[in-house]
Amino acid sequence: MKRLVVSFAVAALCLLNAAAQDKVVRKAIELGQNDNKVMVWEDYLANVIGGRPVGSHNLEDAEKWVEKQFRSWGMDVIVQEVGEIGVGFSRGPWSGRMLSADGMDLHFTTPGYTAGTKGPQRGVAVMEPKNRAEFERVKGTLKGAWMLVSGDSSGWPISLSKSVPADSTLSYAEFAAAGVLGFVQSAKNPITTLYDRKGCFDLTMDNLPSVCDIKLDERQFEVVKAKTLARERVLLEFDIRNHFFEGPVRFHNVIGVIKGSRYPDEYVICGGHLDSYDVASGAVDDGQGVSVTMESARLLALSGAKPKRTMMFAIWTGEEYGLLGSKYFVEHNTVPMDKVANYFNRDGGPEVAVSITVPEAMYTDFQKIAEPVAALDPEFPFEVVRREGEPRKRPTTAGGSDHAYFALNGVPTISLNLRDVKGYGFDYREIWHTDADLYPRVIPEYMEHSAVVNAVMMYGVANLDHLLSRDGLYAE
Question: Largest CB tally within 10 Å, which of 31, 98, 196, 325?
Answer without folding.
Answer: 325
